[in-house]
Specification:
406 residues; mainly alpha; three-stranded mixed beta sheet; 3 strands; globular
Length: 406
């Protein structure tokens, strides 16, 4: 199996070498058309690799697909890779907002942005590989860690709901502080160089500060996305490869969407529910696992609703989407108990309700999950309390009628 890992890593390195060494050898502004072409290419490569995954796991090349948990068939592995890829690609959209703010804050010339993203993504690949290896070992040794991951993802969903990206403070970043302590920083960009000399001493350029900030930002997003992918598959090869293909397409996706992301005003809300759903999926994994096809359908539905709602709203209301929270309460730790409780009830209750509806078609306590969801939502909303009362009444009537039958 080690041969497949080596072949895949070499394949990725060749793609990166062609990207920077051939197609983007000289610094230039990436046009939207060029970015869309590259985005299409990376998606096509990911789908082509998905076909390869099917044949590799179906034939169990070098024992692949039989080491982690139960044996995976080709169709199961292909579906898990596709679901993981969609999840990682979706979560990377929020990263685009932050990258755009970083470039804007430092006024990075457009022709140098691709180089920063290239090296940033190269570092992200190594970092995520290490995190995936650590996560795999944790899950193999401590099965209960899935509950921790699930609860963490739900908490992350709540945090994403209230977090703000416009309060960027690079000077407070630990990596930036460390870099400024060890090196002098040139006042201006030196082309696309990361290092320069000032009075005969080694120094870094503002472009290096941007790279460090992008890298540290990816760490934060990886902490969210790595547990999410383990909810889809436990196979380390599928976890790593789906992550890699999602990251490889991040640069082109940034240049294609950075200028229009503000139009997708409800997409972030979709990501909130996506994370919450995956968190609930992990919490139910040992008792009532949700099948991968159902998960993929739910995830696609959540994202589709966000995109369609954004497109419909774009033509009717061009005003910026105002936060439902006061501006000074942008951070969860600053929320009052009542506000934090309301947000948690909305996220957890809505996600459980969606999961319960899905479970009605599956073996499992779908009705009990729905009742629990309504009970949580009922702490804040009158309609949920009324619906819960109605469901209980109907259930009692059904139980009495069944008891009366001979």
């Amino acid at each position: 199996m080690i041969g497949i890992w080596i072949a895949f890593i070499l394949f990725v390195l060749v793609l990166l070498a062609l990207d920077l060494g051939v197609f983007n050898r000289h610094a230039h502004v990436i046009t939207v058309g060029e970015a869309l072409a590259w985005t299409g290419l990376w998606i096509t490569l990911a789908l082509a690799f998905n076909v390869a995954v099917y044949f590799m796991f179906d034939a169990h090349w070098q024992g692949i697909g039989g080491q982690i948990g139960r044996e995976l068939t080709g169709s199961q592995a292909a579906l898990q890779f596709l679901t993981g890829y969609v999840v990682e690609k979706s979560l990377s959209l929020d990263n685009i907002f932050v990258i755009a703010l970083i470039f804007s804050y430092f006024r990075v010339p457009a022709e140098y942005q691709h180089r920063v993203l290239f090296w940033g993504i190269l570092g992200a690949l190594a970092l995520r590989g290490a995190m995936i290896a650590g996560g795999t070992l944790l899950i193999q040794r401590f099965e209960w860690i899935t509950y921790v991951f699930g609860a963490f993802l739900i908490a992350t969903a709540v945090k994403m709901l209230v977090a703000r990206h416009d309060n960027l403070a690079p000077d407070k970043n630990p990596l930036i502080k460390l870099a400024r302590r060890w090196f002098s920083v040139s006042p201006d960009f030196q082309g696309q160089k990361f290092f320069t000399n000032i009075d005969g001493r080694r120094a870094i350029t503002p472009l290096m500060l941007v790279l460090l900030l992008v890298e540290s930002t990816d760490v934060l997003f990886a902490v969210d996305s790595i547990p999410a992918i383990f909810a889809v598959t436990r196979d380390p090869f599928l976890v790593f490869t789906s992550n890699v293909f999602a990251i490889l397409g991040l640069r082109s996706l940034y240049f294609a969407l950075a200028g229009v992301m503000s139009r997708f005003r409800f997409l972030k809300m979709s990501l909130v529910f996506l994370l919450a759903f995956i968190g609930v999926k992990m919490l139910l994994a040992h008792h009532h696992p949700i099948p991968t096809p159902v998960s993929l359908a739910v995830i696609a539905g959540i994202l589709s609703v966000g995109v369609l709602a954004s497109l419909l709203a774009a033509g009717r209301d061009t005003a910026p989407l105002a936060s439902p929270l006061p501006e000074e309460l942008g951070d969860l730790v600053e929320l009052s108990y009542k506000q934090a409780k309301r947000i948690a009830a909305i996220i957890i209750g809505s996600t459980l309700l969606l999961t319960g509806i899905v479970m009605l078609a599956l073996p499992g306590p779908g009705l009990l999950v729905i009742l629990a969801a309504l009970a949580i939502l009922g702490t804040e909303f009158l309609w949920a309390r009324r619906l819960l009362k109605l469901v209980k009444t109907k259930a009692q009537q059904l139980g009495q009628s069944l008891a009366g039958k001979p």
